Amino acid sequence: MDNPIFFHIFNDDKNKLETQRIIKLSIFIVFSIFFILLIDLSYKVLIRKNIEFIPGNYMPSFSLSLSLILGTMAYISSLIYYSSTKKDDFFIISLIYMNLSVELLITKGHNLIIFDKFIFIHAIFRIILLFYVAFNKKGISPLITKHKIITSIVVFLFSVITPMINYRIFSNNLFAKDIYFYATLMTMIIILYIIACIFLSKKSLDDCELIYSFIIASILLIALRGLYWICEVLLPNITLLKTNNVVLLLTILSFLLAISGVFNEITAKNKRSSLLQNELQVFYHLVEFNTSSSIILYDNKKKVIYTNKTIRERYCKSTKLKDQLKEVEKLFVDSIFIDDSEKNATKALFNKGNWEGKLILKNGKIVSAYIQILNVENKNYFAVNLKDITEEYTLTKNIKRNEQLLSCINNNVQDLIISVDNNGLITYVNDSVLKTLNYTYEEIIGMPIINLLGKNDEILNQLKLEDEEDSIKCKLVGKHSFVYVESIIRTLNDNNEIPYGKVIVAKNLTSKKRLENLAIKFKEAKAYEQIRNEFFANISHELRTPLNIIYSTIQLLNSKHETDPMDFNNFYDKYKQGLKINCYRMLRLINNLIDVSKIEVGFLKADFTNRDIVFLVENIVSLVIPHSENKDINIIFDTNVEENIIKCDPVKIERLILNLLSNAIKFTQNHGEIFVDLNISKDWVKISIKDNGIGIPKEMQASIFDRFVQADKSLKRRNEGSGIGLSIVKSIAELHDGKIELISDGIKGSEFIVWLPNVKLNYTEESNNLVDYITDDKNIELELSDIYEVH
Asked: Which NCBIfam families does the entry mention (predicted)?
């Protein structure tokens, strides 16, 4: 069998929903019956039919007396319910039933035919009270709350006096004759009753109070009486006695509903009180016999009014309850606040409604205290939950002292100390870690250790394994930089020898690493200097060779001019081409040196325009073909599109293509082939220059685009060159946001692939796109000057 105590505790929301469903059903039934009667009676009134009411065999005097008694009971029932629940709305409702009872009393006292003249002022007064109840959310006015008796007397006198005023107003011949005005006024009052009841229905649902449904039904019956009075006015064939009997019956039913509602609510309240009493007993036992907590209740004057059994047995020597309360009061009131002041605790208690902290009791015990304010009938009480933490506090204090000592040691050593848990999350670091890696304590605690180690697999593997090496050299990644460290890793075990993490102790090797880096840079600088020396030696050779040829040719011409002036022109025609070529070689070398200097200081700029890259490359290739015929080399050009406009510097693209073609011709043997392939895709322009020459050694391919690098550095090499041409080609490609790559098996043939972005400049004038760049023959001869044998 289920225990009913816990049903109410844990099913409060379910009970509320069930009550709301009952209220909705009740309100629906009440309004449905009322509107059915209203529509039926209105229909009969409108078509002027005879209406048969309950026969008038009930004595009006007896019925009036019964109505008066029930009205008084309804008034008293409302007051009783108000007194037991302190709900102000029911004091207002009691005034409504007082008004109805006084109205009945006056009718009986003056021996009038029941409601000979309907008391409109009373009806309006009751409607005002109903609307006040329906919209009242903050309680009734303090003026009424403090003077309820005076308010009741005023309402009683109002109810006695107003019928006389009402009688004089509506006894006037003008109103007495105008029955339609009389009926209209009563109809408006009925409508107001209905509206008030609708709003009262909403309040019933919001407050989840079933008693409002009974009050609504009672009020609607009062409103229904008005319709019968309209029948009396508009239908003279209905006997007055029968009408009065129906009106009296509705009044009696109205009072009975109000009394029944109060009786039903009081019965339900008693049942709830019984359940709450059982619940209270349960909670009392939970508090009184709670062995883990000591509970105290005291008032505003710090007088202890309750303690549970645990605190009485633990701290009290007396056996009498009264003496025990005094002992606890002395023990608790003079307690000392830890980590806070009594003033701050009191302030927090009244601001937040609770306070939590630690206290030292008078007997020296240390307790954790949770204090909460309880407001009962506008009086503040304070509930205190105490838990003895003397041992824990002392132990924690010692641990903190040891931690401070350890922290002082750790933070004053130069080594980096990091501890991580089994999940690889950082749990502790010393100050050296924070200073070295530029992190704050909050940022680094909880961070995965992998964030500091980067991709160091060796140390990550050691963190996972139980076997540990002596030391590991690795790199720790800081917020803005990294440091090199030499670290050792040890496992941390608990009291049961179960691993719960690792500790990393690392020595900063930055200074040592800096020296090593300087040594490496020194070696690199020395190697670079050697390359530069070789380059300048090569340059000397490159400059001296054409100069010697030019000088020798000039000497030969001078000699010929002196010995045979007449044959000088023929002799000059024979050697002028050699002079021209060697001058071009010198000019090309100087241009390359100038460009290298510009590249080093960042002065090499591009003059971008929109050009047809297909036409540009094809035109250059066509102009180079005659020069390749000297070695019987066949140059083949192919493209996948006939036209494609891109953003480029045509002068520099020309130089790039000529340099690559010059190298291809230079290093391709006679009767060889060179393939120039242009492939256009959506995003890139791919220019491929492939030869079947001698190839580039594998060991040279990684540095072939560096400055001063040549595949053949000997001064006896077969082909001329300074070793800076490909470096310039790479810079030109990068200047266009492109790149260059080399494909070669190192034995035979090389393929250079240049990638240029397939993009255009946004011009405001389209005419810029229509001008094609025409390659100058002199540029061809200049760039190809080193393909000819030196003579």
From this structure: sensory_box
Q: How does pLDDT run across 703-753, given as a tens digit for each residue?
A: 788 765 554 444 344 444 455 778 888 988 998 999 999 998 888 889 999
Angle between helices 725-735 and 650-666 (to 10 degrees): 150
Say yes or no to pLDDT of 629 above 80.
yes
Average pLDDT, the chain: 74
756 and 648 in contact (C-beta within 8 Å)? yes
Residues in contact with 222: Cβ distance below 8 Å, sequence separation at least 6, in sequence order: 100, 126, 193, 250, 251, 254
Cα dihedral angle (524, 526, 529, 531), rounded to 10 degrees?
-70
Strand pairing class (294-298; 304-307) = antiparallel
Tell me the two tokens of residue 676.
Answer: 């120039």
DSSP secondary structure of 591-645: HHHHHHHHHHHT------EEEEHHHHHHHHHHHHHHHHGGGTPEEEEEES-S--E
- The closest alpha carbon to 779, from 587, 629, 574, belongs to 587
Rounded to the nearest 5°, which phi and psi values hold at 369?
-120, 135
Structure tokens at 30: 């009440």
Question: Under 8 Å CB-to-CB from 76, ≥6 apart: which residues?
Answer: none
CB atoms within 10 A of CB 349: 17
d(C-alpha 368, C-alpha 383), whole Å = 14
Cβ pair 145, 88 in contact under 8 A = yes
Q: How many helices (H) and strands (E) does the chain have?
A: 26, 18
**Whether 94 contacts 75, CB under 8 Å:** yes
DSSP secondary structure letter of residue 773: P
Higher-confidence residue of 586 and 727: namely 727
Q: Given this model, what pLDDT does residue 646 score?
A: 93
| Residue 209 CB neighbour total at 10 angstroms | 20
Strands (E), 237-390: 294-298, 304-307, 336-338, 354-360, 366-376, 379-388
| Three-state SS letters, 15-58 | HHHHHHHHHHHHHHHHHHHHHHHHHHHHHHHHCCCCCCCCCCCC
CA–CA distance, 69 with 28 (Å, rounded to integer)? 30
Using alpha carbons only, give the angle 505, 510, 514 rounded to the nearest 5 degrees. Answer: 155
Q: Are 780 and 621 in contact (CB under 8 A)?
A: no
Domains along the chain with CATH numbers: 4-273 (no CATH), 290-393 (3.30.450.20), 413-508 (3.30.450.20), 584-787 (3.30.565.10)
Q: What are 379's strand-pairing partners? A: 376
Q: How far apart are CA 379 and CA 335, in angstroms?
A: 24
User: Can you tell me the distance from the alpha carbon of 351 to that of 110, in angstroms, rounded to the nearest whole number?
Assistant: 63
d(CA 256, CA 222) in angstroms, rounded, equals 12
Distance, first Cα to last Cα, the chain: 121
Q: Which residues pair with 673 in a beta bridge?
A: 634
Show the tokens assigned to 287. Answer: 């508090």
Amino acid letter, residue 2: D
| Both structure tokens of 514 | 């800096």
Query: Are the C-beta atoms of 479 and 439 separated by less than 8 Å?
Result: yes
Instruction: Name residue 163's amino acid.
Output: P
Compute the distance between CA of residue 614 and CA of residue 783 in angstroms, rounded to an integer: 20
SS3 content of the chain, % helix, strand, coil (to 5): 60, 15, 25
pTM of the model: 0.39
Q: What CA–CA distances, in Å, run from 633 to 135, 689, 719, 745, 778?
A: 106, 14, 16, 21, 21
Question: Measured between alpha carbons, how far is 772 from 68 in angstroms, rounded to an integer?
Answer: 116
Paired residues of 647 in beta bridges: 610
Q: What is the mean pLDDT of residues 357-367?
A: 78
- Residue pLDDT, tens place only, 93-117: 888 888 888 887 776 655 444 444 4
Contacts of residue 716, defined as CB under 8 A and 6 or more positions apart, other chains included, come to none
